[in-house]
Design brief:
The complex is a heterodimer of chains A (260) and B (619). By secondary structure, chain A is an alpha+beta fold. Chain A has 5 helices and 10 strands; from the N terminus they run ααααββββββββββα. Chain A folds into 2 domains: 108 residues, no CATH class; 129 residues, Immunoglobulin-like, CATH 2.60.40. Chain A is 44% helix and 22% strand. Chain A has a 5-stranded mixed β-sheet with strand order 3-2-1-5-8. Chain A has a 5-stranded mixed β-sheet with strand order 4-10-9-6-7. In chain A, strand 1 and strand 2 form a beta hairpin. The longest helix of chain A is centred in the N-terminal third of the chain and has 32 residues. The N and C termini of chain A lie far apart (92 Å). Chain B is mostly helical. Chain B has one domain: Cytochrome c oxidase-like, subunit I domain (Cytochrome C Oxidase, Chain A). In chain B, helix 7 packs antiparallel against helix 8. The chains are: A alpha+beta (260), B mainly alpha (619). At the A-B interface, helix 1, helix 2, helix 4, strand 7 and strand 9 of A face helix 4, strand 1, helix 11, helix 12 and helix 13 of B.
């Protein structure tokens, strides 16, 4: 009877790796998984995610199984009069399980560096495609006008509805007007905080036309949850036409106001 | 008391004939007590009350995440606004205060305050702390914090709502959250008082552990609990001044518009925000310079206590005593150079991100070594499945999950996607709840007999464990895959996003599990208070453990020990060969027969490892 108790607890702990792996195995099929990637660099990030997932998954299952086995095999009720092993440690084992994880972890860190540099350090040499300014609780967008320069009177101002050319490098100049925000494009594997007083460059390349979410991922106040935008990728001709349309609309408003 | 050697004593460990006590009034015995055990219990009761409050706040947060804008039961009536439905600013306040309460009023004070106070003198063989008055003050400095944090719920605009990290400029500018004002200021004051309390405790712990150990209690004969408390105290002492300073800077920003954290030209809510000249990132660097070591302050003592509990119920010496000590020291040392991993997306120089990624990956190493040594400890043991042991085993099992999920965030490119999503929420709840809180329960079940002289009910203890274990995994494990979708934290309603609109059923499931998890604690509360008065009377050493605290009466009287204990060995001599008993207490006098047998086993082990001149592990 007492043995049953130990078996019960051992099985409860065995359920951890089983259900843990099952959760991750089922997640993609119920659509609770990485959202569709429509960026050029996203696959690098995703493959690093999978790499770490497999690596940690193996360690997770192995260590949890050792724990289960210890509970199963070394249950006091099953050992009778036998005493526990009198051992204070093993120098060899300590060396092994220090060196191997150290090497793996160091490798893991080095292995990430190139992708990190691609996404955050190797800035393309080009003028900003658009300026994105976070403001409680909206994304203010500013495109350079015909002169190709930001900060001139012919800039085109839009709110929340970010349109970008597909299959082209895009450079966003990210700013904040008031508090911290974070420019999060889940489908493009892009996230960057917008910081008051800083101009932060963000670059990426969309590979598919269509529109997806812009989410604010840094607490910015009571309306944080509704600081929502859309990013739409258009073909180059469509994009140019859209920008011209926006410019015309802005001009029309200008003239209407001026003629009053 | 410590010089008294006469073995003739009363039941309470008193030796009145030799050392009469001054008469203690009720007030000086139970309220303004300078006895470390009473102070420890004061901390324990206070933090358990706040644990309940923090848990209820979490439930309210979960309610909104699962069923946004639906009427809140109970709480909706208490804070009636908009007809029982929660406002987004109220939701923001809820998660801010949930984290604040749990971190500053529960985890840090329950580990260092409750268990540190209660256990340190008992486990090192001292009659009390080095500075009893300082110790009393460290508890009473918590009360201004309790009052300021508690009162902040009732001031105009409610409690702080800038997240527990309180990032400027949201937290420094009153216009950034209309209606807010007092709440954030009180939050900063409360934080300062918690800091003062921790600092008073930590200098006391360091002094006590260095100077007041019993004869024979060398540093390498200390139980892991004491090593962990010692290193935690050092961490506190070095990191806290930074938090205190930066807290005052933010207070000055709010009250005197000093602008330490506000850049020039900032316009908040259509009003020019302050004189400028500051940097929001400065706060983040300084805040995390404290709060990252604080993460270890919130786990190391639990690691220490779990090591002691695992060895006792596995009836086996701790595997790799010295590596365990060194890895705690390693975690503490590296803990000071990893703070930047909270800021990979913050706009900090991305090259610095690489530096912090390497140091962060490396800090996983001592944690891994600890885990392997725990597994080595239970392997080959003779495991008794008590409630305390089950919580300790689950600490190991859950810490594996929490440790491994940290690697995802440490990898900077992966962090780009999962930063500030439910993946990180899963990670820190596995470390702080599924590990630390489970470790705390293990410790409560384990040392309850020493605290109150009675044992807790084992059946209900195991039931409490079973339900908590199931529900916590139901709540927190699913957060990993929510994080994989990119589901952001701190959103009052995320379902209007195309990417997240289908995740409501999963969140509802998690909320049901969270309700079950909090509900299961009723079993614990009833068991705790019932056992305190009606539980079976425990002897001095109900678990047949080795530590010095088990030689004292249960509960120990003022002055703790009958006579000055003398220590002959380390705390983990379980199942020594060639003896009838399966444990040798630290105070058991050396026995020639057992010593010879133990030496024999040692030399056999040594012979196996020819390349090493000395047997590993302290004895």
């Amino acid at each position: 009877m007492k043995r049953l108790g130990g078996m019960f607890w051992a099985f409860l702990f065995l359920a951890v790796p089983i259900l843990g792996v099952a959760t991750f195995a089922v997640a993609p099929s119920i659509n609770v998984w990485l959202p569709k990637d429509i960026s050029e660099h996203g696959s690098q990030i995703d493959s690093l995610f999978y790499f770490i997932l497999v690596l940690t998954g193996v360690v997770f299952v192995a260590t949890e199984l050792v724990l289960f086995w210890s509970m199963w095999k070394y249950d006091a009720a099953a050992r009778g009069d036998e005493k526990a092993t009198y051992i204070h440690g093993s120098h060899t084992l300590e060396v092994v399980w220090t060196i191997i994880p150290a090497v793996v972890l160091l490798f893991l860190a080095i292995y990430q560096m190139n992708t990190w540099a691609n996404v955050k350090m190797r800035r393309p040499d080009m003028p900003p495609t658009v300026e994105v300014v976070g403001r409680q609780f909206e994304w203010r967008l500013r495109y350079p006008g015909r002169d190709g320069l930001l900060g001139t009177p012919d800039d085109i101002h839009i709110v929340n509805d970010l349109c970008l050319p597909v299959d082209e490098d895009v450079l966003v100049q990210l700013k904040s007007m008031d508090v911290l925000h974070s420019f999060f494009l889940p489908n493009l594997r892009i996230k960057q905080d917008a910081v008051p007083g800083m101009k932060i460059p963000v670059w990426f390349k969309g590979t598919e036309t269509g529109s997806t979410d812009i989410v604010c991922a840094e607490l910015c106040g009571w309306g944080h949850y509704k600081m929502k935008g859309r990013v739409t990728f258009l073909t180059r001709p469509e994009f140019d036409a859209w920008l011209a349309r926006m410019e015309a609309k802005q001009e029309a408003t200008h003239e209407e106001v001026a003629s009053r | 008391m410590s010089t008294v050697t006469a073995p003739v004593t009363t039941d309470h460990g008193h030796a009145p004939a030799v050392n009469p006590h001054p008469v203690l009034t009720f007030l000086s015995t139970y309220v303004f007590s300078k006895d470390h055990k009473v102070i420890g219990l004061q901390f324990l009761f206070s933090t358990l009350v706040w644990f309940l409050i923090g848990g209820l706040l979490a439930l309210a947060v979960r309610w909104q995440v699962a069923w946004p804008w639906s009427d809140v039961p109970v709480l909706g009536k208490l804070f009636a606004q908009e007809g029982g439905q929660m406002s987004p600013e109220f939701y923001t306040m809820l998660f801010t205060m949930h984290a604040t309460v749990m971190v500053f009023l529960v985890i840090i004070p329950i580990l260092a305050g409750a268990f540190g106070n209660f256990l340190i003198p008992l486990m090192i063989g001292a009659d009390d702390m080095a500075f009893p008055t300082l110790n009393m003050l460290s508890y009473w400095f918590m009360w201004p914090a309790f009052i300021t944090f508690g009162a902040s719920f009732f001031v105009e605009g409610g409690a702080a709502a800038g997240g527990w990290t309180s990032y400027p400029t949201l937290s420094t500018n009153v216009n950034a959250s209309p209606g807010s004002g007092m709440g954030q200021t009180l939050w900063l004051l409360g934080l300062t008082f918690v800091g003062v309390s921790s600092m008073l405790g930590s200098v006391n712990y360091m002094t006590t552990i260095i100077l007041m150990r019993a004869p024979g209690m060398t540093m390498f004969r200390l139980p892991m609990t004491i090593w962990a408390m010692f290193i935690t105290a050092i961490l506190q002492a070095f990191a806290l001044p930074v938090l205190t300073a930066v807290g005052f800077m933010q207070l000055a920003d709010r009250l005197f518009a000093t602008g330490f954290f506000s850049p020039e030209g900032n316009i908040i809510n259509n009003a020019v925000a302050g004189p400028g000249g500051g940097q929001p990132l400065l706060w983040q660097h300084l805040f995390w310079f404290y709060s990252h070591p604080a993460v270890y302050i919130m786990i190391l003592p639990a690691m220490g206590m779990v090591s002691d509990i695992l060895t006792c119920f596995a009836r086996k010496p701790l595997f790799g005593y010295r590596p365990m000590v060194y890895s705690i020291a390693g975690i503490a040392g590296l803990g000071f150079i990893v703070w930047g991993h909270h800021m990979f997306m913050s706009g900090m120089n991305p090259a610095l991100g690489i530096t912090f990624m390497v140091s962060t990956m490396m800090i996983a190493l001592p944690s891994a070594v600890k885990t392997f040594n725990w597994l080595g400890t239970v392997w080959g043991g003779k495991i008794e499945f008590t409630a305390s042991m089950l919580f300790a085993l689950s600490f190991v099992s859950m810490f594996i999950i929490g440790g491994l999920s940290g690697i995802f965030m440490a990898a900077t490119p992966v962090d780009i996607f999962i930063h500030d999503t439910y993946f990180i929420v899963a990670h820190f709840h596995y470390v702080l709840f599924a590990s630390t809180a489970m470790g705390v329960w293990a410790a409560i079940y384990f040392w309850f007999p020493k605290m109150f002289g009675r044992t807790m009910n084992e059946f209900w203890g195991k039931t409490h464990f079973f339900l908590t274990f199931i529900f916590l995994n139901g709540t927190f494990f699913t957060m990993h895959i929510l994080g994989a979708v990119g589901f952001p934290r701190r959103l009052a309603d995320a379902y209007h996003y195309e990417t997240f609109h289908h995740l409501q059923p999963m969140n509802a499931f998690m909320t049901w599990c969270a309700i079950g998890m909090v509900g299961s604690q009723i079993i614990f509360a009833v068991n705790f208070f019932w056992s305190m008065f009606y539980g079976p009377v425990a002897g001095r050493n109900p678990w047949n453990a080795n530590g010095l605290e088990w030689t004292a009466p249960s509960p120990p009287g003022h002055g703790n020990f009958d006579y000055q204990p003398v220590v002959y060995r380390g705390p983990y001599e379980y199942s020594p060969p060639g003896m009838d008993t399966d444990h040798l207490m630290q105070t058991d006098p050396p026995n020639p027969a057992s010593d010879a047998a133990a030496k024999e086993t040692h030399s056999q082990q040594r012979a196996k490892e020819v390349h090493r001149p000395k047997a590993p592990g302290g004895r």
